[in-house]
Amino acid sequence: MPTFLPEPPFRHDQASRIGVLLVNLGTPAAPNPAAIRPYLRQFLSDPRVVEIPRAVWWVILNTFILPFRPKKTAAKYASVWMSEGSPLKVWTIKQSKLLKGWLGEQGHSEVLVEYAMRYGQPSIAAQMDKLKAAGCEKLLILPLYPQYSASTSATVIDEVGRVLATYRNQPAIRTVRSFHDDEGYIKALAGRVREYWQTKGRGDHLLISFHGVPRYTLDKGDPYHCYCRKTGRLLAEELDLAESEYTVAFQSRFGRAEWLQPYVTATLKKLGKAATGRLDVVCPGFVADCLETLEEIAIEGKQDYLQAGGKDYHFIPCLNDSPLWIDALTALTKKELSGWLLTDNTAIDNTQQCTLSRAQALGAQN
Ligand SMILES: C=CC1=C(C)c2cc3[nH]c(cc4nc(cc5[nH]c(cc1n2)c(C)c5CCC(=O)O)C(CCC(=O)O)=C4C)c(C)c3C=C
Ligand SMILES: [Fe+2]
Ligand SMILES: [Fe+2]
After folding, report:
1. Do 296 and 73 contact (CB within 8 A), yes or no?
2. Which mutation among 41, 209, 211 tests ligand 1's pocket best, with the greatest number of atoms within 8 A of CB?
3. Number of C-alpha atoms within 13 angstroms, CB side, residue 93?
4. What is the rounded CA–CA span in Å between residue 11 and residue 353?
């Protein structure tokens, strides 16, 4: 028999609640090598992220990556760090607060919302413990990755499963697998682009950039590539773009293996050389701005494009706290919680009054 961690006794008198856990990737606690190293170690030790044999990878990671990469990326992180902290974390916190507020305004104050990070803090385990302690017997896990991939969404669910395995009194679990073609999400993206065009003018071409993954994951059945292409197509359709007016490409290549193509760097050079004029770039795979958008795309991408001969370059910010996105997130959450949300009639059935009939329970409440 496994031994489980101690848990507080079941509370017969406590109303059951619903928890929503937004989960994003994670980010270092500070923009310096000492904080980046343990984050990268945890991230890059995940076998869902780097799929090469553990013994071989362990040597590569500890010999060639962890001694050098944290120093290199510290300067990059520093260039995008906000006064409140890492952009990814700042936006994720804002999103969880706004979602809680919007659900409350729509009469669902029984829903608690927390956020967690797959790597770093606050951990999925700590936040699941917190929601459980607050009385959540139902839990929706919402990885903040619009396009499912094994290296992102699946590893979140793996971790949730690992935590559940330590619980005696487990909550019911629902998960959001992918929302790459969710109507609200697509409309929020299109709204973000249009809003940008209205205030800053419109470019000659739109680059739709997604985070890459190794090419072999596509060959092994990961749907990520297909989902990115579909998001790109739906966004272009929503914006009434002809095929010649946009390009989908993949950024952030890591390591020597082939990744999904076309690569963003090659695409920027090609578009720059072709005298495209003004290029606008949007990153629909990230719902929150982060290192990969604010540094790699907004700063490095601009240099690449201008050096290749491009005239002007605009990075369109991610969805962050835009109202259309919070609206879409609220709608997505409510859809996934269907049948779980309380109505006036069902509220009393969700208390744990095990010895009382419904009528007695109602009477006892008055
Ligand atoms: C949006 C989806 C993401 C996918 C898919 C993804 C795959 C993936 N990433 C790496 C390696 C690194 N990614 C890094 C940063 C990073 N990646 C994502 C998202 C996806 N990654 C985000 C949101 C961020 C930014 C984090 C932040 O703090 O702002 C990094 C760290 C930075 C660096 O050292 O360059 C690495 C490393 C792999 C190997 C991979 C797929 C297998
Ligand atoms: Fe990444
Ligand atoms: Fe495909």
Report:
1. no
2. 211
3. 10
4. 10
The sign of the dihedral angle between the CA atoms of 337, 363, 355, 136 is positive
Residues with C-beta atoms within 5 A of ion ligand 3: 225-226
How far is residue 35's CA from residue 14's CA, in Å, rounded to a whole number?
40
pTM value > 0.90 = yes
Instruction: Name the DSSP class of 330.
Output: H
How does pLDDT run across 67-107, given as a tens digit for each residue? 999 999 999 999 999 999 999 999 999 999 999 999 999 99
Q: Which residue has the tokens 């259309």?
A: 324
- Of residues 304, 178, 282, the one with CA closest to residue 232: 282
Instruction: Give the closest residue to 96 by CA, choosing from 153, 63, 144, 133.
Output: 144
* Residue 273 CB neighbours (<10 A): 12
Identify which of 173, 174, 175, 162 has the alpha carbon closest to the alpha carbon of residue 5. 162
Closest CA to 85 of 291, 325, 310: 291
The verdict on the CB of residue 86 being under 6 Å from ligand 1 is: yes
How far is residue 100's CA from residue 95's CA, in Å, rounded to a whole number? Answer: 9
The tens digit of pLDDT for each residue in 143-182 reads 999 999 999 999 999 999 999 999 999 999 999 999 999 9
**65 Cβ below 6 A of ligand 1:** no
Side-chain half-sphere CA neighbours of 86 within 13 A: 27
Q: Which long-range contacts (C-beta less than 8 Å, at least 24 apart) are formed by 7-12?
A: 7/132, 7/167, 7/168, 7/169, 8/133, 10/169, 10/352, 11/135, 11/352, 12/352, 12/353, 12/354
To the question of whether residue 205 is assigned a binding role by annotation, the answer is no
Question: What does the angle CA 321 – CA 108 – CA 131 come to, to the nearest 5 degrees?
Answer: 80
Pairwise CA distance, residues 214 & 65, whole Å = 18
